Amino acid sequence: MTELKAAEGNSDLESLIGYNLKRAYVIVQEDFRKTLGEGGLSPRSFAALSLVISSPKITQSALARALGVERSGMVAIIDDLQHRELLERAGVPGDKRAQALLPTANGKRIYKAALAAVAKHEEKLFGVFNNEEQALLVDLLRRFREARGNGVEN
Amino acid sequence: MTELKAAEGNSDLESLIGYNLKRAYVIVQEDFRKTLGEGGLSPRSFAALSLVISSPKITQSALARALGVERSGMVAIIDDLQHRELLERAGVPGDKRAQALLPTANGKRIYKAALAAVAKHEEKLFGVFNNEEQALLVDLLRRFREARGNGVEN
DNA sequence: TATTGTTATACTCTATAACTATA
DNA sequence: TATAGTTATAGAGTATAACAATA
Predict the structure, then answer these.
(1) What does pLDDT average to in each consecutive run of 10 residues of chain B (154 residues)?
(2) Is the pTM of this model over 0.90?
(3) Of A34, A40, A152, B40, which is least surrounded by CB within 10 A?
(4) CA at A143, C1' at D8: how many angstroms apart?
(5) Are B23 and A145 in contact (CB < 8 Å)?
(6) Which alpha helices (H) appear in B10-130, and where do they start and end?
(7) Least CB–CB distance from B19: residue in A47, A129, A143
């Protein structure tokens, strides 16, 4: 028996869903970064760009709500994506407060390549599961989030 | 259709396991902290104390490996638990470098209460799943971690 | 040479509070 | 009054690199 198994074997942690969620996410996140490499999109920038592409003209506030983060935190993420010229902030006719986010042609191209890399990364990581199990896992996680109101207070 | 569903509906994110893992974990972690309250154990302190109780005399390095964190990062966690008088650093006969970690009586008591609260918190959060689904989710997450070598490089 | 605990350090992520300009 | 974007700020959490003591 290895040292790790000796330490974890009798622990309550192993049966806690939260603990297992975290350990799993740490592994995925680390490999995600390795996959997109130095200077590549971080998980959160990737997620933001994905939503801007699937919902062009979305505002920063709406994007923050969709991602479950504070709108103050969106600023740095959007700044980063704008500096990389992957998206633009455009004015919204009829509401001078809002910034409509639009992907650039380059943004769409970079995203497409990143998505392909991420798909491979997930195939590799979750290759231990068959297709049915993968679908089941996604379904469970999604149902959980929907039941908990997307983790957003308002 | 709500704003959130409009934004997420056509996104690639929804089918990515990593994204769904993170969103789920954020919800759990937030409720965990709310459950143990101001000044209560953080998820990582709870996890460390749990292992010290199930594996008394474990060293800091072994604990770090079991939790998948750097041993330099363990110092603050163990300092915190020691200041709260939940565990002690004891010498190891035969190895003057190592610190054997031992729970105090108070540590065991506090942990027991925290574990009961955490169990309730998980029951509440994961009440959307039946028992079979809960077991399935834990099983999938654990199998994933085992297949990926516990997320530890060495 | 390798390992244990430790410190110093820095970076990422995220939250809160306050501000401005609009609505 | 409320909302959008922004700034300043601070607090977790975690990683790297180096060091002394010990193996």
Answers:
(1) 62 96 97 94 98 97 97 97 97 95 98 98 96 97 88 44
(2) yes
(3) A34
(4) 38
(5) yes
(6) 17-36, 43-54, 60-67, 71-83, 105-125
(7) A47
